[in-house]
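quick one, 404 residues, struct below
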Amino acid sequence: MVRGLLRGHGGGHAPVSNLELFFDLVYVFAITQISLFVRAHLDFAGLAGAALLFLAVWWAWIYTTWATNWADPDTVPVRLMLIAAMLVSLVMATVLPHAFDGDSHALVFALAYCLLQLGRTGFMVWTMAEENPRGCRNLLRITLWFAASAPLWLAGALVSTRAAQFALWAAALLIEYSGPFAFFRVPGLGRSSPHDWDISGSHMAERAALFVLIGLGEAIVVTGGAFAAVVPDSAHILAFLACFAGSVLMWWIYFDVGAARGARHISRNAQAGRIARNAYTYLHMPIVASVVASAVADAMLMAAPAALASPALIAAHGGGLIGFLGGMTLFKRASSPQGYPPLSHLAGLVLLIALIGAAVITPMAAIRFAAVCCAVLLLVAVWEWGSFHGGWRERLARWRHALG
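---
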């Protein structure tokens, strides 16, 4: 048995390797593919399919993040495993836009997904066999849970109707997503415990933050690409600025307080694995998904900024920001020492809901709707900054005095 394949961080700091960043490039492409899928299927069935595909992509990425938290990417076997996982993930992302087209793409997607999940976790069982027997049993349970869902993925790819395919794939994801909450209980092997998830909290926090950046990067690429393809009139310039401001404000709201405080919280907690399961494995899903929805909204806004805000734009932009602030509220509540949700985020949610209601009742221009959404995000960012950093009233008074 090959030894020395684990990081051995003992719950301390584990740096993100260059190979992990290289691995993420495939998921940059996967997020772009999901964005394209949504733009091509702006109906209820299409959005449901996009949500299912996003959940699969997120689950593939987050479990690889858990694996690299334990396994050392600088060792050759782990490096080869990650490269193989990259290749399989790339195949999965390539066929993603056609996963519900009722042809061979569905089978390729299902096979690639199952191969990735079973192959990676099976490799981790082998990796941990001698160095971490308790972790080996934990990964064996996880492997068996993926094995239980695999027949549903394959059956869904082979059925003749889209409704049956969606139902079977949704059932497969339901099994997989319930695994951590059930502590991967397996007859004869018992169940895992949070002590089996002896991770590096700082590594998990940094990896999740990087995935948020992937989503924000998609919004920047969409905005820049759309602006480069049009004649820069006043409407498109304003839309361009609104899209950019929205991305910047989402970055600010996540990274100014949330990312740093979350990293400190998980690094100092004795049950880092439980926090990683709740705050990063689950609560980051709505955050990243909402950032992707905002990228879709940016594309729609840049296409027709002077037109009335369509129901699809209102749902993608307003609904996306509600999902983002809602996810950030839960995440920051989980990482807050007092366990309180930020009042600024709750106020922002109320304002966004009111704005969507107003836009539905009284049609408004798309650019105006986007601008008001940005104003709500700005209010949340400034409010939280002042509340968290403290002394803001005194600073404002000194600035006012300095300006005469």
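Residues 234-268 form the longest helix (35 residues).
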